[in-house]
Structure of Deoxyuridine 5'-triphosphate nucleotidohydrolase:
Amino acid sequence: MNEPTISVKIKMLDPDLPVPSYAHPSDAGADLHARESAVLQPGERALIRTGLAIALPHGYVGLVHPRSGLAAKHGITVVNAPGTVDAGYRGEIMVTLLNTDNTNAFEVKRGDRIAQLVIQKVELAQFEQVQTLDDTARGTGGFGSTGGFTAN
């Protein structure tokens, strides 16, 4: 069983919702729940509140990931996956869900598990402007450069 490595303060903005928790001891993502109900028509997206605000320690980030079961069974994903919750943010965590199914609407019910929150340590970079960069084997090959993709 993994033991917690950091303490994250949470404020339940809706005390009737479950506190985020891990379904299994070795899980990386804690379940986030819907504060409200909504129906997502095919191709529609909706911003769903979670009733949760957190205070992450400096040097950490919360990443909001889609739930694999919702994606596989219903085509529900998080539009900006992973969503970023910065350490300085103190507002309610909200999740932009997207129904990618072409034919079926999807109903989000209050209390449903809609996403996962993964807490990770981050490195902050100091950006140094230079005139040239060192050469590499890849060079300037971009998106899909090893798979025959060509941009128009």
